[in-house]
Write a structure and sequence with these properties.
Length: 343
């Protein structure tokens, strides 16, 4: 299907969902990003029905190939609904369509939120100092709200609940993933050994976003307008989200600002502690930063393999694979700075 055919099929689908007399497509385009999922901006005007008037929507469907750890669109939609019900600032989920005859793939539809998710813009002058500090605190509050969602949860029964240390479970998961890469990567093997030897206790098992970082939340007028991209959500250690947010890989060059290149840990930790009533253990955050960088290195390898194998020819995937030496260098530095060496 070409773009016009897809947009018209979506208009008919929305008409059926809302009971509108007519749905007119005002604009339809592919959004940037989305190496793992495909995202489209859809502007429509509904005549009558449940949602009369103009609406800015996002349609999210599968990309041509997948990463094994990614949730299905049906699962991701369930997670988004659970987060929305918990009061997390997310785009309002509207519909899930599992009928592949509509546009050829399973897709979901949500309201489009205003703002930008560009990490480079956010760390390079888009925010005042006051806005940045407030934004970091809001990140802490959003994570605290999300982490109140815990198993068992009827809507999220498809998410496995760790029966061992979440840290050790991740180490094993990443070992398995690394074993599928044809060439050796000794730095990553060493990092996994270090992570296994220094795995901390988990305070609780909670719903984690799994990719909570600058670049995956929208900012409008200095405030978060929507947290995006829930395809890696899982029940895990709450420090996994905190560590991923603070990992050096997601600072977009603003390395002195540990929280996504935007602000400082003191503000993040205080907001999270205020909302949860539990102080943040800075050492555990550092541990999960190492875990996050190891994970990112393996994802980079997997993305490169998608391109090299011919599964999905993509310059973006190929360039992601080229990030590996930088990530490995950061890994070695971080573990060294923590003052603990693997024996």
């Amino acid at each position: 299907m070409n773009a016009n055919e897809i947009s018209q099929a979506l208009a008919l689908y929305i008409q059926r969902q809302t009971g509108a007399a007519h749905v007119r497509v005002l604009a339809f385009s592919r959004l940037s990003g989305g190496a793992i999922q495909s995202n489209y901006a859809l502007s429509v005007e509904c005549e009558g029905g449940l949602l009369p008037g103009p609406h800015e929507l996002v349609v999210r469907s599968d990309a041509p190939s997948q990463v094994d750890a990614s949730l299905t669109r049906e699962q991701e939609f369930q997670v988004l609904e659970a987060a929305y019900e918990a009061g997390v600032t997310v785009p309002r989920p509207l519909w899930l369509c599992a009928d592949t005859s509509v546009i050829g793939r399973v897709f979901c539809v949500m309201l489009r939120v205003p703002g930008t998710a560009s990490g480079r813009q956010l760390v390079r002058g888009a925010l005042t100092e006051s806005q940045a500090q407030h934004l970091v605190r809001q990140l802490g509050y959003e994570l605290a709200r999300l982490h109140q969602v815990r198993p068992p949860h009827d809507r999220l029964a498809f998410l496995p609940v760790p029966t061992q240390s979440p840290a050790l479970a991740r180490v094993q998961e990443y070992r398995n993933a690394l074993s599928q890469i044809p060439e050796p990567h000794p730095v990553l093997e060493w990092a996994l050994n270090w992570l296994q030897d220094h795995a901390p206790d988990s305070p609780a098992i909670v719903l984690c976003h799994g990719d909570f970082r600058t670049g995956n939340y929208m900012v409008h007028e200095g405030r978060i307008s929507g947290i995006l991209d829930w395809e890696f959500a899982a029940f895990s250690d709450p420090y996994e989200d905190l560590g991923w947010l603070c990992a050096r890989s997601w600072r977009f060059g603003a390395f002195e600002k540990a929280v996504g290149g935007v602000g400082h840990k003191a503000d993040l930790f205080q907001a999270y502690a205020d909302a949860t009533g539990q102080a943040v253990d800075a050492g555990k955050v550092l541990y999960w930063e190492v875990m996050g960088m190891t994970r990112w290195a393996i994802i980079a390898l997997q993305q490169a393999q998608r391109h090299l194998s011919g599964e999905q020819n993509s310059l973006e995937l190929a360039l992601t694979g080229r990030l590996l030496p930088e990530i490995e260098f950061d890994l070695l530095n971080q573990i060294h700075q923590m003052g603990v060496r693997h024996e």
